[in-house]
């Protein structure tokens, strides 16, 4: 059988299997699954203050609502979080309401990840960041019980992590230049565009640095002709790709741009969960996976498998998050083409330690689980 046909068939089979990957595939120690404890979930709201106003083509904000989550079993604690930028349609109220509905005490074996996450996903539709917070905490917990970080459980090598970009929102020339200085540890600059002064913004960046750029138009370009003209302009500015040039409902226009663009076109706001890949594969060159959009690490892993079967490029992005969610996403980094994992450095005060930028690469620690440690005095008590 042709290998590509086999991969596509295998990838489509993933959609039918709505439950996440089973930990049994990784040979979890039997002694870990015979304990009589119960899972205990706790959570608290936590507002993420930003270092700078986060300006996009259609919005601006100085903070992001969040919820910190803990999942405990036999005295071992896994950490997770939900981060809710406005376009996700979630809030602290909706996330805490969803988490309050969960009865994880019915589970006495955290290694039954398929069963647990299928239950969480089935309680209500949507609520993707709320589901992601539980998924991340469960992965952290199980990784700690196994005694290994998830990139090792998945058999991945940190040597294959791509360099991450640092995001610069739409702002005044003075602030843009200041942000570029803050991005010294990063080898790629991500630019938010979608207004009338896009070329001016790019020119300011190019006055300060010759590092490669990637562009997120955030649905801001009005016509397919404008979008194509910008793609052609950016191709001469050492740009790697363009995210979401048009509104979500402009699929035919996006396909027209993709056929003519010298740069790859990546789906962001239009893309959320696994079935979307099949719908979008003929319109976009790749997808931007974010744990808060995709309900967490388990579904993100499946997304990578399916997208690769269709020959798509993979980007892993983030919201403004603490190092908790960034470290979780970093476990998947060896599988992707591009990383945009800077959410923890965009906030004013991180409450976790666990990822480092090494030669421009956001690198998780060797600690088990997702590899983070709460910072005493900063992490909220609950």
Overview of the structural elements:
- There is one protein chain.
- The N and C termini lie far apart (55 Å).
- About 7% of the residues have low confidence.
- A hairpin with a 4-residue loop joins β2 and β3.
- The protein is built from 14 helices and 17 strands.
- The strands form 5 sheets. It has an 8-stranded parallel β-sheet with strand order 6-7-8-9-10-11-12-13. Strands 1-4-5 form a 3-stranded antiparallel β-sheet.
- It is globular, with a radius of gyration of 20 Å.
- The chain is of the alpha/beta class.
SSE blueprint and pairings:
Elements: H1 3-16, E1 40-45, E2 48-55, E3 60-64, E4 66-73, E5 76-83, H2 92-101, H3 113-123, H4 128-146, H5 150-153, E6 165-168, H6 173-182, E7 188-192, H7 198-208, E8 213-216, H8 224-235, E9 239-243, H9 251-260, E10 265-267, H10 276-280, E11 286-289, H11 291-294, H12 297-309, E12 313-316, H13 323-330, E13 338-339, H14 343-346, E14 352-353, E15 355-358, E16 361-364, E17 373-374
Parallel strand pairs: 6-7, 7-8, 8-9, 9-10, 10-11, 11-12, 12-13
Antiparallel strand pairs: 1-4, 2-3, 4-5, 14-17, 15-16
Helix pairs in contact: 1-12, 3-4, 6-7, 8-9
Properties at a glance:
single chain, 382 residues, 8-stranded parallel sheet, 3-stranded antiparallel sheet, 17 strands, 35% helix
């Amino acid at each position: 059988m042709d290998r590509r046909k086999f991969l596509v068939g295998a990838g489509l089979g993933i959609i039918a299997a709505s439950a996440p990957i089973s930990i049994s595939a990784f040979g979890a120690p039997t002694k870990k699954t015979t304990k009589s404890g119960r899972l205990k979930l706790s959570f608290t709201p936590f507002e993420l203050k930003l270092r700078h106003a986060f300006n996009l083509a259609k919005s601006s904000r100085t903070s992001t609502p969040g919820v910190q989550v803990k999942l405990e079993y036999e005295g071992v604690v896994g950490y997770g979080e939900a981060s809710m930028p406005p376009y996700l349609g979630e809030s602290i109220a909706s996330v805490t309401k969803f988490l309050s509905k969960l009865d994880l005490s019915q589970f006495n074996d955290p290694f039954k990840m398929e069963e647990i996450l299928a239950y969480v996903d089935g309680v209500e539709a949507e609520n993707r960041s709320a589901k992601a917070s539980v998924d991340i905490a469960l992965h952290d917990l199980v990784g700690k019980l196994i005694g290994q970080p998830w990139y090792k459980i998945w058999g991945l090598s940190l040597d294959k992590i791509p360099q991450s970009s640092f995001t610069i929102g739409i702002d005044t020339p003075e602030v843009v230049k200041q942000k570029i200085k803050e991005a010294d540890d990063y080898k790629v600059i991500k630019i938010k565009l979608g207004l009338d002064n896009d070329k001016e913004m790019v020119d300011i960046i190019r006055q300060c640095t010759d590092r490669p750029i990637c562009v997120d138009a955030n649905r801001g370009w009005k016509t397919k002709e404008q979008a194509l003209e910008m793609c052609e302009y950016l191709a001469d500015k050492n740009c790697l790709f363009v995210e979401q040039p048009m509104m979500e409902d402009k699929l035919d226009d996006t396909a027209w741009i993709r056929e003519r663009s010298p740069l790859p076109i990546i789906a962001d706001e239009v893309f959320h969960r696994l079935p979307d890949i099949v719908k979008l594969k003929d319109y976009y060159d790749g997808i931007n996976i974010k744990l808060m959009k995709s309900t967490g690490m388990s579904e993100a892993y499946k997304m990578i498998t399916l997208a690769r079967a269709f020959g798509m490029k993979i980007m892993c992005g983030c919201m403004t998050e603490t190092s908790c969610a960034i470290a979780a996403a970093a476990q998947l980094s060896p599988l992707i083409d591009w990383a945009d994992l800077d959410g923890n450095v965009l906030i004013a005060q991180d409450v976790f330690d666990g990822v480092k930028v090494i030669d421009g690469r956001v690198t998780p620690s060797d600690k088990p689980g997702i590899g983070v440690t709460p910072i005493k005095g900063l992490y909220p008590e609950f």
